[in-house]
Amino acid sequence: MTIEILKAPALQLGDQLGLFAPASPVRLEYVRKGQEYLALSGFQNREGNSLLSRSYHVAGDPSTRLADFEELLLDPGVKGLVAARGGYGTLPLLPLLDFSLIARHPKIILGFSDLTALQLGLWQRLKLVTFSGPMLAVEMARPGMVNSALLWALLTGAKESEIKPLLSAYLASGKLECLRDQIFSGRLLGGTLTLLASLAGTSYLPDFTGKIIIIEDRGESLYRIDRALTQLRLAGIFKAPAAVICGDFSLPNKVEEPLLPGFFKEFFAADEFPVLINFPYGHCPQSFIFPQGGLLEFNCRAKTITLLESVVIKNGS
Questions:
Q1: Which CATH superfamily is domain 162-307 in?
Q2: Long-range CB contacts (within 8 A, 24+) of 92-101
Q3: How far is CA 78 from CA 69, 218, 223, 274, in A?
Q4: In whole angstroms, how far apart are CA 125 and each of 86, 122, 271, 277?
Q5: Could you say which architecture CATH assigns to the domain 16-159?
Q6: Global pTM?
Q7: How far apart are CA 315 and CA 294, in angstroms?
């Protein structure tokens, strides 16, 4: 069965990007550095009204953050939305979202970490392609953190021949391990592991049957990673995916980090699908950037990653 995929128009140099804070509060100094990065990349920006707000541990109450998101979405001058940071706060927005409004005004939405909840919710309800990538006041505010070539190639709808080598470079690491089949394809979905686990049992978690599941996390102990993965297994997430990709996991106890590859091998030992370990995606410099819901092929033998269909609308196509 063919599913109808909702895609946003591609960006063009000079476009204005809307800046919103759907989760934790942000610091002005990092916002300004992120804005400098966007300017140097050739883009204008518009700040959401509550970008610098704070309410307890989040960037304003849910209704305020939602109003910002919707206003930027409706502004015809704003061509894409960039999240300021993750942290916590996106989950409470999900039941407040007007999905019909978003469907009528699809725009590029960029972010990851806590934004995983928003992106997976939008895929589940609308099949909207969003982008798991750098955020304004985090990666964009720190020189060298962003793979700018890959970021703007994806968001501006560059030719597949230009995007392929940028994606494929992520299979060059000698630390990568591929269990079982070394060639797999499917729609790529995932993000931060604890957010996937938080969505289990809700109506916002997608069906991962036939999908490539990509996971990463930061600051979680090994037993908490085990617990989140086990929760997903008990929820049936690992029944029939196309593959699982284990990205970067920065553990609070560095002594545990060398144990991770062995743990992942043991956790997925009885499964039949391919598993890729030590993939450079997550809270790490030059992280992999991908379209949530994008159709990709991973060939670990030839060390190529191929985007099998466009992920943005370009030139009215």
A1: LD-carboxypeptidase A C-terminal domain-like (3.50.30.60)
A2: 92/62, 93/22, 93/62, 93/65, 93/66, 93/69, 93/118, 94/118, 94/121, 94/202, 94/204, 96/62, 96/63, 96/66, 97/66, 97/121, 98/70, 99/125, 99/126, 101/70, 101/73, 101/74
A3: 11, 31, 43, 40
A4: 21, 5, 29, 30
A5: 3-Layer(aba) Sandwich (3.40)
A6: 0.97
A7: 19
Q: Which residue stretches of the chain have pLDDT < 50?
A: none
For 119-178, the three-class secondary structure string (H helix, E strand, C coil) is HHHHHHHHCECEEECCCCCCCCCCCCCCCHHHHHHHHCCCCHHHHHHHHHHHHCCCCCEE
CA 206-94-217 angle, 5° bins:
65
pLDDT of 2 = 67
pLDDT in tens, 19-49: 999 999 999 999 999 999 999 999 999 999 9
Q: Where are the chain's structural domains?
A: 16-159, 162-307
Give the pLDDT confidence of 2-21 residue by residue, as tens digits: 679 999 999 999 999 999 99
Q: What is the pLDDT of residue 254?
A: 86
Confidence (pLDDT) at 1: 57
Contact 6, 293 (CB under 8 A): no
What DSSP designation does 222 have? H
The two structure tokens encoding residue 108: 């590029």
